[in-house]
Design brief:
Layout (H helix, E strand, L loop, with lengths): L12 H42 L45 H5 L14 H20 L3 H23 L4 H14 L8 H26 L6 H14 L4 H22 L11 H26 L1
């Protein structure tokens, strides 16, 4: 056994993947918080450049003023350091240990006592669970690493969509290409099936979007949903797309009805569809074959 051969042992690998997943979950919290703000800064900068180059748009509509020095300060996934949004206290290394730090701090900032949302440890725990299960399911293989990356990306997209009703291209498009690249060797699906899955996934929801818009004059979903289903198709192949669409629709309907009945969520308030697609995609990857064997004979 090599010096690190023990990492690949069936009894050890899931625990290693769990620890890795918890750390990745901590980083995903940064992505979830910062990526939409980075996108907004880019949009404002582009609008300001457009206004400076072409003047006021027709009709006198105002555009954001050119960003000042403060807006131009570096802001990305690495800088500035994470800090309490209430008092600006910079998070130390000991305060940034996944899950454990939140528990030790009792969910409060060590400087000002402001509440730290429980979503941070929840995301970390979910990321750890995805890593551990993928390692247990696929063992020491490229498929295990792929399943982890797929699940972690879907987790980030889910929370971002819940927060902002956005599915950033910065995640969906690399996810799509990564699926196609992994399936060059048929890791999760034959390459031909993956290519057709990407095309079919996009066109399926694109068709629903336009049918709904032509019938009602309203937009029923965003273009990010098309790209997300295309990415799922690129990973799993076109054969699993019907299962993904069915699962996401059922879960979405149940949750949507529950929100309207129990949370008094108005019918006019949009409910993001991305989280249901993401959940269905992960279920189809990890348990799709078992579901098909169990239920397809029953359904005939």
């Amino acid at each position: 056994m090599t010096a690190f051969g023990w990492l690949g042992q069936p009894a050890v690998l899931p625990w290693v993947a769990l620890a890795l997943g918890l750390c990745i979950g901590s980083f995903l919290n940064v992505v979830i918080h910062r990526l939409p703000r980075m996108m907004e800064r880019d949009w404002r900068t582009q609008c300001a450049e457009l206004a400076a180059g072409t003047g006021e748009p027709q009709g006198g509509a105002s555009l954001p003023a050119p960003p000042g020095k403060e807006a131009q300060a570096p802001y990305n996934l690495l800088v500035p350091r994470s800090a309490c949004p209430n008092c600006g206290h910079q998070i130390t290394a000991l305060e940034n240990i996944p899950v454990a730090s939140w528990i030790a701090l009792r969910g409060k900032c060590s400087a000002c006592g402001a509440k730290i949302t429980a979503r941070y440890p929840v995301v970390e725990i979910l990321a750890g669970a995805i890593g551990a299960y993928a390692a247990w399911r696929y063992g020491t293989s490229l498929a295990a690493l792929g399943a982890m990356g797929f699940g972690w990306s879907l987790l980030a997209l889910t929370v971002i969509d819940l927060d902002t009703q956005l599915l950033p291209d910065d995640i969906t498009l690399p996810l799509l290409w990564a699926g196609l690249l992994l399936n060059l060797g048929g890791t999760f699906a034959p390459l031909g099936s993956a290519v057709i899955g990407a095309v079919a996934g996009y066109l399926a929801l694109w068709s629903v979007y336009w049918a709904f818009k032509l019938a009602t004059g309203k937009e029923g979903m965003g273009f990010g949903d098309f790209k997300l289903l295309a990415a799922i198709g690129a990973w799993l192949g076109w054969q699993k797309l019907p299962m993904v669409i069915l699962l996401s629709s059922v879960v979405g309907a149940v949750v949507g009805i529950g929100l309207m009945v129990f949370a008094r969520h108005g019918r006019d308030k949009p409910i993001p569809f991305g989280p249901y697609l993401a959940a269905a995609g992960l279920i189809a990857m990890l348990w799709g074959d078992a579901i098909a064997r169990r239920w397809l004979p029953i359904l005939g």
